[in-house]
Amino acid sequence: MIYFDNSATTKALPEVLDTYRKVSEDFFANPSSLHALGGKADEMLQSARHQIADLIGAKPSEIFFTSGGTEGDNWIIKGTAMAKRQFGKHLITTSIEHPAVINSMKQLEKLGFEVTYLPVDSRGFIHVEDLKAAIRKDTILVSVMGVNNEIGSKQPIAEIGDLLEAYPNIHFHVDAVQAIGKGLMAALRHPRVDFITFSGHKFHAPRGTGFIYAKEGRLIDPLLTGGGQEHDWRSGTENTPAIAAMAKALRLLLNDEDQKVAQQQAVRERIYQHVSQFDNVTMFSQLSDDFAPHVLCFAIEGVRGETTVHAFETHDIYISTTSACSSKKGTESSTLAAMHVRQNIATSAIRVSLDEHNTLAEADEFNAAFDAIYADFQKLNPVNRKETVRAI
Amino acid sequence: MQYSEIMVRYGELSTKGKNRQSFIGRLNGNVAKALHEYPGLTIRPKRDRLHIELNGEDADGVMNRLSQVFGIQSFSPSLAVEKDMTKVHEQVLALMNETVPEGSSYKVNTRRSDHDFALDTNAMNLDVGDFLSDARPDLVVKMKDPDFILRVEVRREAIFLSTTTIKGAGGLPVGTAGKAMLMLSGGIDSPVAGYYALKRGVEIEMVHFFSPPYTSDNALAKAKELTAKLAPYVGGIKFIQVPFTEVQEEVKAKVPEGYLMTVQRRMMLRLTEAIAQQRDGLAIFNGESVGQVASQTLESMAAINDVTTMPIIRPVATMDKNEIIAVAEDIDTYDLSIMPFEDCCTIFAPPAPKTRPKTDRARYYETKIDVDGLMQRALDGIKITEIKASDQFMNQATDLIAELL
Fold first, then answer.
1. Quick check: A19 and B405 CB within 8 A?
2. pTM of this prediction?
3. Which chain A residues contact residue B401 at CB under 8 A?
4. Where are the domains positioned within chain A?
């Protein structure tokens, strides 16, 4: 089996699941309980928080645990809207965000907020000048993803941070769900970045856990109110086993990060160099430095993405159409649409997404499968089809 | 940059006349204790400075520890250079390049204890300044309030260069002011009071009252952990736990509610004084702050203070709560202090304690209890432990957690 769908989710590592199981057994008590078992669970929780804070260069008090990327995005966007509505009702994001961001914005629009969706160029990047032009006196939030989940374009976070130095009152949120462990920590931790969303299951932690970074002094309203956990910012009994497992997964992920990034780059390059030689292939991800090392998006013209995904499946290779979240709806990729890619090509797009465990041998196997699949598909090619019709 | 020594400037003790030798001796001992993890160091106390030769040990680690030692005004990591002007120039440039950013202002400040060296103070200033104006033309010389002072010390053994001066903890070397007891509850204020006592050179011993089963092991562990937070300033602190259950039960049973707190506090103070006398303590420190709670109004203080003539020193008496909290955060005791465990001060707190208790009423109610017997039994049950900086009491699962994460 070759698993090339790591941007959809990753496989939890055995040692991470080991922690999950042991913490479930030995630290099962509610961390808020006063008794010794509760104290022990709380110690685990705070140690996990400490470790995560250290790993991303933040303070423990700046880390809040969530249920994952969708909650983090929703919380920071809506929480900012609620906390800062008296200062303004304008928010800025990009037209290529994950639905967790886009649909939070849409919900706020219904409540009377205004949202600017920044365009992207044909390569999938926003331009800082567009952002600058969009900033208004009543802008309260700029929310930009670190790495696009469909094509892997790295958005100019550091440049945006530099620009926003001149606008100290605007909250700056980075959705880093696809960016963690991909050599982007320096940009993410630009001093002007106020909030960052992370999701555990994208780096080999169990599903249903994540965290946000919220810079000291920056306030958002809670989304989940209740028993006052997480300093009253995020109520709900803490998911101690998953949080501990996530802290461990993050440590493992960031260990030798450079070497892991180089490995993914090499695998991606091997596939890129192979498939880009074919006439009917359109590449959306590039090999240049402004693309993340783990995402490769391309289309085989004339073949629907779904068909290609199933074709690879017969070779025991697992990839996806552009994003798992929209793949079942059969709609074309929103990122590719924003890049003004023609619809018939966009619906053909597929995404290969890697993790640090993928190998060059797997890339070679993928390339061999690609050759077979591509040859098969040539029967469907419009040029070939025309000839068939004429022959009849 | 591999520094060769840390040069330490004494704090207030430079002005202490005849006691100077004993102050320097004590500081030397405290510094050695604080740096015991670095066996390679050579510490040389001199009349006006203390020199710590690094011999390859980690300068940052050493300086980190030094910043917690009281009695130090400031210290500078220095570079030792052979007494050869070509080598001096070489090292001056290396040091300036590493520590002084482009475009900064500076001046050269030479001290000379080796009067046989060819260049005198002025000649040295001129020579080094001259050299730098060629080697680092981006720098501006400024005599008044420059960004950096390049200190050049010509000593017998070598020439020492430094550009960085780090502020020390100030105060007096711990131990030079004698010994006292600190009444440590577990709240925010008493550890801060302890910090200030240490800062003025007082060697403190912690007196902690605990009342099982009304107070939990957690409360005791918390008080010990707080002690461990203060231990780095001294090396180690004695922790004296005093069983207080019987006193509290007896007081609760015999004394009217309005005077519960006052009489309890008088008993605590009596016990602390007795312990101080046993252990050669000269004074009692506590974390009382005027008007903060019912037991800390001036009337309450007077009614409680009535039981002793030993000096009671209240370092945070006139500080606002926010000021105390700021110090507690600085010395890293705040997060511990706010952990929610009942201590013996809160456990029998009456709903409406008297804010203006009368001393004679307190004396009268005490005739209803067996003060001497209660005290004797409490003193008999005392337990004393020595707490070190590295001791841990709160987090029992640390090793297991480290393994799992």
1. yes
2. 0.73
3. 43-44, 47
4. 2-7+257-381, 14-254
Distance from CA of A41 to the nearest CA of B (A): 9
What Cα–Cα distance (Å) separates residue B402 from each residue in A20, A32, A44, A241?
14, 21, 9, 14
Retrieve residue B159's tokens. Answer: 């020439």
Give A22's contacts in chain B (Cβ within 8 Å).
404
B392 min Cα distance to partner chain A (Å): 13
Closest partner residue to B401 (CB to CB) among A34, A36, A43 is A43
Give Cα A353 to chain centroid, integer Å: 11
Query: CA of A40 to nearest chain B CA: how many angstroms apart?
Result: 7
Active site residues of A: 325
Q: A165-191: per-residue pLDDT in tens?
A: 999 999 999 999 999 999 999 999 999
Task: Report if residue B328 sits inside a domain.
Answer: yes
Alpha-carbon distance of B182 to B288, in angstroms, equals 11
pLDDT in tens, B184-216: 988 999 999 999 999 999 999 999 999 988 888
Within an 8 Å CB–CB cutoff, is residue B339 touching chain A? no
Chain B residue with minimum CA distance to A243: B405
C-alpha separations of A138 from A95, A167, A174, A365, B24 in Å:
20, 11, 20, 53, 62
Of the segments A219-233, A314-328, B12-26, B338-352, which one has the largest average pLDDT value?
A219-233
Share of chain B above pLDDT 70, in %: 97
Q: Do A44 and B404 lie within an 8 Å CB cutoff?
A: yes
Asked if A251's CB is within 8 angstroms of B405's CB, the reply is yes
Task: Tell which of B143, B170, B197 closes a domain.
Answer: B170
Q: Which residue of A has its CA nearest to B217?
A: A36
- The answer to whether A321 and A305 are in contact (CB under 8 A) is yes
Residue range A14-254, CATH number: 3.40.640.10
Give me the sheet containing B312-313, strands edge to edge.
B312-313, B283-285, B179-183, B203-210, B236-243, B383-388
* CATH number for region A2-7+257-381: 3.90.1150.10
Q: Note whether ipTM > 0.85 here.
A: no
